[in-house]
Amino acid sequence: MKAKSGIYISFLPDNLDVLVSHKDHCVLDVALRAGIAIDHTCGGNGTCGTCLVQVVEGLEKLEPRNEIEEEMAQDRSFNDQERLACQIKPFNGLSVQIKKES
Ligand code: FES
Question: φ, ψ for residue 16 (rounded to 5)?
């Protein structure tokens, strides 16, 4: 990836690099503002699980799951890379794969 100023995160599989705005509180905010479709049935409250993404790069810099996300992760047996886009904060170099419900 070439050097760019600002904070960018990447969304796979389309490999879209999106500049994070100061208004974006979570990865879901970044995606929706950029017109990237991520399901978010509960509106970002951490209760539906439809915004689940797979972290491809940056897992080591990601904050630990908060209480809401941890509860769902345990209920649904998420692996370490599976995170809720509405509960994780964007940072430069984060790359996530959008999961599609089958
Ligand atoms: S939008 Fe429902 S859990 Fe993230």
Answer: -90, 120
